[in-house]
Design goal:
475 residues; mainly alpha; transmembrane; GltS; transmembrane helix
Length: 475
Amino acid sequence: MTLYTLLVDFTLASILILLSMLARSKIKFLQKNFIPASLLAGFLGLALGPGFLNILPFSGEIGSYAGVIIIFVFASVGINGFSFSPGNMKKDLNRMGAYASYKILIMCVIIFIPIVFSILVISKWVPEINYGFGLLLATGFYGGHGTAAAVGSTFESLGFTNATDLAMTSATVGILVGIFGGLIFIKMATKKGYTQYVKDFSQISEDMRTGLVKPENRPSIGKGTISPIALDPIAFHLGLLLIPSGLGYLLNTYIADTWGLDFPTFTIAFIVALVMYALLGKGQKGVYKYVDEEVVNRLGSSATDYLVFFGVASIKLPIVLEYALPLGLLMLSGLIIVILILWVAGPAMNYESWFERSIFVYGYATGVFAIGLTLLRIVDPRNKSKTITDTAIVGPLNTPIELFAWSAGPAMLLGGQHWAFVGIFAVISILCIVISIKFKWWYWKIPLAGRPDASALDSDGVSVKSNTQSIHRSS
């Protein structure tokens, strides 16, 4: 790939995004379904790109862009810092603890239940399917195409032929389940009053409905804190975000090469950005007084639009047509699981802004981080639910469990230790529920409608300004 290849890919993406914005401002169906321009553009890119009609000359690299853009998005979250409100620390810790327990439970359930279903049911109908088949759902739904390729190749090295194709198909189906299922569930939630920041379509202003803001309603998108004579303010803020993005990648590569540990790069970039925030210093003597949080917000939000586009446009549809029966049964089990974790586990383990946090995890658990961000963007345009910040903070807790599943799973499942593997993840799932109940992070009996906003009030009922910025622009 050359820089000109990158230029062409982003030019085509920009054309489709702008055309989709025009379509959204005119077409009632798109407005009624809260469909962001970037998501619509992604579908256009999928239809017109090399994966289907092959009309637009996208390069073969478009599938890798989303993973890089995610790093930039999390750097934009970290550079604005994170702090606990002095009178609100207990609530923040409870919120993040409950969310961490929820995320770990979801991951473990997606791993072990499909394996049990595959062993006890699918293998009886299709005898040639081995005991490792069930793990392919988790590699695709939760891991995405990258994990699917890695685990699939491991399976094939152990004698499970076609594992990579099956895993990639799982990832593709997971994305489609995430997108279309997520939109359906969001409409259901808005009608029932479960959403905090986006209500029923009839109550949404024309600005939000069409996406075109009237002159009298247009907010400022930032202040010029740096004189253009010295350095353009946008270049200044862009540099602040690119530094932790690049350093996060380099640091994560060093960690992987030196100690063999594989952390999410976006988490490392987020941590580096937080360190930069601390070093810049907030106050009259610190450099941070020249950082405008709203400019950072807009840069992160702009990156999110392109992340959504490339995440959707790079789907490989032809793979879905293969291995219909066993894969169809496995995908059906996955669909049931993600629906239950959204509507049953979600409200039970999340109190404030429960639907916003749960729909993000639903999207994240169906294959691509970009889908989770897309769904969150629809219901929480300005990250008031603190979902993105909490995800960055508690994300590393999932890493050891994921590493064990993707590395040891294939060998254990094909080596006769399938029930031991299942038992490990079943036990972790039970522990998550027990811990949630023990620490009073279990909200089963509390009505779903009318639960509070995650950032609305502190313990004394006084409005608190979150130090976490939005990474999304209002639809």
